[in-house]
Amino acid sequence: MDGDLLPIGQFARISRLSIKQLRRYDELGLLVPAHVDEQTGYRYYRFAQAREALSIGLLRSLDVPLAVIDQVLSGTTGALERVHDDLEAELARRRRTLRALERVMAEGLPRTQVSLVTEPARRVAVVRDSAMGPENIGRVTSAAIARLMSSTSGLHDSQLIGLFPVDLTEPMPITIALVTSEPVPGTEPDVLPGGDFACATHVGPYDQISLTGHALLGWCAEHRHQIRGPLREVYVSDPATTAPEQLVTHLLIPLEEQS
For 189-203, what is each residue's pLDDT tens digit? Predict the structure, then answer.
């Protein structure tokens, strides 16, 4: 046998990978042995493959998926950019979660002042989208608002409302509505029904609205109010000119009429 060949155990030690990992990478075609004994099935590797094996281990330690590692090893340009963007998004989500946790630690489990209000029906222009999972709601909502506002020249003082399902099913339908009776290109006209609503006010960053929403839903359950529609977020402040800690958002949940 070629003296440059190493049995899988020795190769695992110099490449800092386990035998199980090497077998798995062989099955995937990511790191194929230089030789496989036909009678025993033993795998053998060359010293020159150690650098590639170490590169795989390094990229896996950086949470790079195996499919992307294959692209990196084959020299595909920009293969790591999507992984970088995904890690940035996950880091941002973790930071938002940490800020919300710190607020709960400082203020306790969320409770809020709730009032019952009656809202009229409103003519609106809407854009619709959907989010796969709660962690994507913020990104999808921001994109939908940007798409709506890009078509609303002269209507920037109009009220903006987000509508979100109470049930966290997937995909989650998201609607962004602009209160206006005028036609808006790229949107569809609709009418938000009026009626009785439970209302709470959230003051703070948009990524912590769920805390006030939690408290509002808890209030509705405690007072035995039946919910009949999506939760509405009425955006009062302009985030372009208002600090995140001072943003005001009214949350409204439409209620079933009491029999």
Answer: 999 999 999 999 999
State the angle between helix axes of 209-222 and 81-107 in degrees (0 to 180), rounded to the nearest 10: 50
pTM for the complete prediction?
A: 0.71
Q: What is the CATH number of domain 115-254?
A: 3.20.80.10
Pairing, β 195-203 against β 43-46: unpaired
Q: Are strands 188-192 and 195-203 parallel, antiparallel or unpaired?
A: unpaired
Instruction: Assign a CATH topology to domain 5-73.
Output: Multidrug-efflux Transporter Regulator; Chain: A; Domain 2 (1.10.1660)
pLDDT in tens, 50-79: 999 999 999 999 999 999 999 999 888 888
Spatial CB neighbours of 151, under 8 Å, sequence gap ≥ 6: 184, 185, 186, 187
**Scanning the structure block, which residue is given the tokens 């998926």?**
65
Euclidean distance between CA atoms 77 and 81, whole angstroms: 9
- Give the C-alpha separation, 96 to 214, whole Å: 16
